[in-house]
Amino acid sequence: MRIVSADIRVIEAPLKVPFIVSYARYDVMPSVIVTLRTDTGLEGIGEAVPDEHVTGETVESVVAALTQHLLPALRDTDPRNLNQVHERMNTALVANGAAKAALDIACWDLLGKHAGLPVHALLGGRKPEQPMIAKVLSILPPAEVAAQASAAIADGFTHLKMKLGTDTAQDIASVAAVRAAVGPDIRIRVDANQGWQDVSTARRMIAAIEPYDIDWIEQPIAADDLDGFRRLRPHTSAVIMADEAVITTGDLARLIHDESVDMVNLKLMKSGGILPCQRLATQAALGGLAVQIGSMLETSVSSAAGYHLALAHPNIVSTELSGPVAFSDEPGDLHFPLPYVDITDRPGLGVTLDPAALDRLTVSAKELIVE
């Protein structure tokens, strides 16, 4: 089997409400949908959702990486040979995790369709638990975020993730307001997205919100301050999760060596797709760290890819792939019987794209002949 052509579409998926984190606000989420076609007639779909603040990519750079470097590097490569796919991509271009993830995901979809198996079966088989989805709450004034939290619980969510990191006083007030609104039994986790920056601020903030029974605190300090986690660790018993700080095996090895975090948030877009994240999840397990699979607010395509990996890997204990429920329009068809997601046993990713929706959301498109 060989890849003969690729369809590359830049889309913009509108959000039901603006998504606000410490470093940006999004009203629509740009994404690059890739369809790989083979000489056997099979098609595989993948997705790149770049973030210039995390992966260092934009949709323009993803399209350039795909068309000028990565797809030409896969000429005459069997897409079922994932090791060779990644070897050739990494030889052609360093970093560019989201662009590589699009091709990795599409190749897994092809492999599953060729084998007649879902991706989670190819990864070792699914766990018995049904994956759950947390409601992600943007940075808003305390009363507004508390109202959104109450509405989320009414919709069926049982876990909440609060985005923090722009105003420390508001952060504390918001956590208090949400806990008061939802009561003691709903699980809450928080994500500063590097917004508290330094260790002293993180120490103060963690101490202030711990009384509100927080599951874990995600990326409280700057991503490039790996030593900061080591300095923060002795001052709190809270569960600390690294996110933006973990992209490569080297990043993870440093955190394991320092015994400075309890969990890591892996994202296909940061690290280049399913195969690299599978390896990172195993590395984390060997180092005693639990894993969450997160996302950049992705459509059903790469969200499904993340869920397949989470279903199959014993060390992945949490998923935050909430993009499909945040969009008012998207091209995929993942089904979310809240608070769960329905990952089927259909071959490949198990996702079908709606051509009308894809056309409706497309900003630009191009086809590349690979052979």
UniProtKB/TrEMBL annotation:
Cofactors required: Mg(2+)
Cofactor note: Binds 1 Mg(2+) ion per subunit.
Keyword Membrane: no
Classification lineage: Bacteria, Bacillati, Actinomycetota, Actinomycetes, Micrococcales
EC code(s) of this entry: 5.1.1.-
A Pfam family recorded for this sequence: MR_MLE_C
Family: Belongs to the mandelate racemase/muconate lactonizing enzyme family.
Keywords: Isomerase, Magnesium, Metal-binding
Keyword Metal-binding: yes
Residues in Mandelate racemase/muconate lactonizing enzyme C-terminal domain copies: 142-239
Designated name of the protein: Dipeptide epimerase
InterPro entries for the chain: DgoD-like, Dipeptide_epimerase, Enolase-like_C_sf, Enolase-like_N, Enolase_C-like, Mandelate_racemase_C, Mandelate_racemase_N_dom
Highest taxon above the source species: Bacteria
